[in-house]
Design a protein that fits this description.
By secondary structure, the chain is mostly beta strands. Helix content is 0%, strand content 53%. Strands 2, 4, 5, 6, 9, 10 and 11 form a 7-stranded mixed beta sheet that branches. Strands 1-3-8-7 form a 4-stranded antiparallel beta sheet, with no helix packed on it. Strand 4 (34-39) and strand 5 (46-51) form a beta hairpin. The N and C termini lie far apart (40 Å).
Length: 111
C-alpha cells in the first residue's frame, strides 16, 4: 500500500514563501485526487487544496490566490507552493491520498 512523505516545512517570516512536497512510497499516485490539509493546535484538521489526476484544482477560501497545488509526474511528486504567508497559516500540513495520511510537516510563520 502507498505511504506518503511530506517535506519542505520550516520557519518563515510573514510574507515569505515555502514549497511543500508530497511523495508516495511503494507505488505512484493513482487516479484519485491528492489533497493537502492542515491542523493547528486545538483546531480541527481542514482541507487546504485538492488536485485531481487531470490537473483540476480547488482551494480553501483562506488560501486562494496565495497557495498553488501542482504535480510533477516525472518526479511523482505533488507540491503546495505557499506564498504571502501569514501567521494564521501556522500549522502541521498533511498530504492525503487513497485513505492514507503522511506524517505531516510543520509550517511556522512568524509576525
Amino acid at each position: 500500500q502507498v505511504q506518503l512523505v511530506e517535506s519542505g516545512g520550516g520557519l518563515v517570516q510573514a510574507g515569505g514563501s515555502l514549497r511543500l512536497s508530497c511523495v508516495p512510497s511503494g507505488r505512484p499516485f493513482s487516479i484519485y485526487s491528492v489533497t493537502w490539509h492542515r491542523q493547528a493546535p486545538g483546531k480541527r484538521r481542514e482541507l487546504v487544496a485538492t488536485i485531481t489526476s487531470d490537473g483540476s484544482t480547488n482551494y480553501a477560501d483562506s488560501v486562494k490566490d496565495r497557495f498553488t497545488i501542482s504535480r510533477d509526474n516525472a518526479k511523482n511528486t505533488v507540491y503546495l507552493q505557499m506564498n504571502s504567508l501569514k501567521p494564521e497559516d501556522t500549522a502541521v500540513y498533511y498530504c492525503y491520498h487513497e485513505g492514507y495520511w503522511g506524517q505531516g510537516t510543520q509550517v511556522t510563520v512568524s509576525s
